[in-house]
Amino acid sequence: MVLALNGSHLSGNLRPLALEEPRALGGGRMIAGSWPPRSLAKLGPSPPPSALPTASPLPSNDSQCGEQILSYGSAEKVLIGAVLCLITLLTIAGNCLVVISVCFVKKLRQPSNYLIVSLALADLSVALAVMPFVSVTDLIGGEWIFGRLFCNVFIAMDVMCCTASIMTLCVISIDRV
């Protein structure tokens, strides 16, 4: 975001509030919670717009956040899709191996390893419930296609699974001290 500041008219705490015209922030759309241009005009005149490049969203984006939709070529989509699928599959396979090894190897069935299994299950839930949908969303340009209801479910699963993984890491670190 480029600030349009005129040092002779703005001072003190008002300087951070001055913004360039909303066009520069995303194709003429206002960012949610920002001041309309009429309110900014009262703060003082702004210098001419700078020559910095600005990102503008594609017309099909219904978002009012001024975010840019990512667009990849066919080769990039194949490469990125292959890498994301490989990461997801390796995450699933690696965490399954941890759970299976602790369950079937008698020497590994110790209370301290149960926390490792808990971490593997939390990471497995991230790999199954979060990573595939994020990968698809990234590949199609950042637009959510799975519906509003599943968007809310997805956000809840993302927060819950990632928090479980982080909290398990915290417990493991406390256990190791």
From TrEMBL:
Q: What broad class describes the main subcellular location of this protein? A: membrane
Task: Write down what this protein is called.
Answer: 5-hydroxytryptamine receptor 7
Listed transmembrane segments: 78-102, 114-134, 154-174
Query: Per the database record, which ranges form the G-protein coupled receptors family 1 profile domain?
Result: 94-177
Q: Name one GO cellular component term.
A: plasma membrane
In terms of domain of life, where is this protein from? Answer: Eukaryota
Keywords assigned:
Cell membrane, Disulfide bond, G-protein coupled receptor, Membrane, Receptor, Transducer, Transmembrane, Transmembrane helix
Protein's membrane topology: Multi-pass membrane protein
Listed InterPro entries: GPCR_Rhodpsn (IPR000276), GPCR_Rhodpsn_7TM (IPR017452)
| Keyword Membrane listed | yes
Annotated compartments: Cell membrane
Q: Which GO terms fall under biological process for this protein?
A: adenylate cyclase-activating adrenergic receptor signaling pathway; positive regulation of MAPK cascade
User: Annotated Gene Ontology MF terms?
Assistant: G protein-coupled serotonin receptor activity
* Short name of any one Pfam family annotated for the protein: 7tm_1
